[in-house]
Amino acid sequence: MILKQRKYGYIDMFILSLRTSPFYTVFELVVTIFNALIPTFSIFITANFITNAIAVYNEEAHISAVYTSVGLLTGIILYNEVAGTVMKLVGARRAIFYRKRLTPLILERHAKLDYKHIENSKTADLINRVCPPLADNVWRMYEQILDVLNLIIYIIGIMLTLFAQIWWVALFLLVLSIPIMYVATKAGQSSYNADREMSKIDRKVQYLSNVMRSREAVEERAIYGFTENLNNR
User: Fold this and answer.
1) Do residues 125 and 198 make contact, with C-beta atoms less than 8 angstroms apart?
2) Does 86 fall in a domain?
3) Would 158 be classed as within a structural domain?
4) Where do the H-state alpha helices sit in 112-225?
5) Structural domain for 185, as ranges
6) Does this model's pTM top 0.70?
């Protein structure tokens, strides 16, 4: 069962996607880890290529010494060129699959809601913010985890590389990154709170627009005199 009747936490950002599609969840995780390691690999491969190229130039090694480095660098370049297009195709198929799995479930839950919840302003705001794009939201939540994982692996790889060569630069960057991450976290929270408040306004606008213009609300407009007021305007 994908959706359960309980309060969801941070761990569910991963579990919901895993329950929806283990394949797409694991596939994206592997791709994210690989992409995060590419910059570190590129540094060592480039350094190895330069070392071997100098050795070949000085006639201290055979030309074949650079073949491995050139092949790996070529592979990374080809991957960077092709990966974006391939991931777009995979993402399109994944989006369709998630909508097929999750949309019927959330519509069923929505249809079974007691009327008192629909009339409750807080519940209506929550439904408007979460339910319609649930399939997209489940994947976006998982993407946030992957983005954090990508950043952590990338930073650790670069820091270890710098620490092995110039340790004080790595230490300085690590200390400098702490306040930057704190400010970014606070900015993200403020942005989310602003989006949440805007979603409340959007819901009211959509509701009033529906009342004033839709065919389904003809009787409501007649009861409260909306039609006459609109015609006068």
Assistant:
1) no
2) yes
3) no
4) 115-119, 121-130, 134-165, 167-213, 218-224
5) 166-233
6) yes
